[in-house]
Amino acid sequence: MTGIGVDIDKFRAAGVADAEGEAAVQMKGDGDEAAPNMSAQEITNSIFEFFWPGMGKPEYSQQAGDFAAFCFAEAVRASRKMDWVPRPPGGRPGIGWILKQAVQIAWRKITRSTEIYEAVRNVVANNQRINYDMLRNGLDPSY
Question: Does the pLDDT at position 107 exceed 80?
């Protein structure tokens, strides 16, 4: 599987994602028992760094946390949909390729992969870039 290996389990432990990997509606605040190792600001910054590496980060606020959770949830949902997409054939596709793809799709669904695909990360980052820039400049994003 081609993914960049985002550790969704780290976000689950911090209270950002539930057992299904979906982003939580609200970011957990500092000192919550659900986020023992990472503060809400650290989680938010790590999500922003994942989608927009090397760019300046916005000042932390509840709005920034909500936006980070939204972007993370979009990436998880889209990655789950990408699990259904067959991979390109190495040559001329035949019945063997179709069967192999069916088995691989079933395997990806059974194992519940915890990776976010690079293509998904790029799409979410591009689609939300304007909102991220608005947040960095102190404006209200309209996601």
Answer: yes
